[in-house]
Amino acid sequence: MVFRTWNGKTFISVAPRKPKKQSPLQKENRSRFRNATAFAKSMMKNPEKKAEYTEIAKKLKLPNAYTAAITEYMRKPEIKEVDTSHYSGKADEEIKILIRKKGFEIQQVEVIIVDKNGEIIEEGKAVKGFVSDWMYKTRTEIKLKEAVQFKVIVRDKAGNFIEKRV
Hints:
The chain has a four-stranded antiparallel beta sheet with strand order 3-4-8-7, with no helix packed on it. A four-stranded antiparallel beta sheet has the order 6-5-9-10, with no helix packed on it. A two-stranded antiparallel ribbon has the order 1-2. It has two domains: about 1-75, no CATH class; about 80-165, Sandwich (Immunoglobulin-like). Helix 2 (about 45-60) crosses helix 3. Strand 1 (about 1-5) and strand 2 (about 10-15) form a beta hairpin. The chain has helices spanning about 25-45, 45-60, 65-75; strands at about 1-5, 10-15, 80-85, 95-100, 105-115, 120-125, 125-130, 135, 150-155, 160-165. By secondary structure, the chain is of the alpha+beta class.
């Protein structure tokens, strides 16, 4: 039997059992959740972070700061769009990146421009714009006759990162 307290009430339930066979996806999800709980526990030890997650929990209507921290870790950011339509290969042109992570902030957005051989032409950090927009201003002038690829790497406060190539 397991005793659990939820919203001030104590509940008794059957102790969970580990399944005998796990698919690779199940193993990955269990590992990810184990990491999420470790992240949440470390955030709860820091009074400033705990207060921050308490506010997030209220905003997202979650039961507590611990759950908010686990939610942040488990919820991956999404790169919705990389807008290169205003880019012609000149310096000081903007690349607009639209990123979503419901209820949580993005820590950093990095843009890497590579040539057809995979050599880095330039790289740098994008700057936060309105709500979920990020802007990267190019610094190097290149000939657009050559194929270029934009690699966008997004990191959140929980250490998650995703990347997209355009």
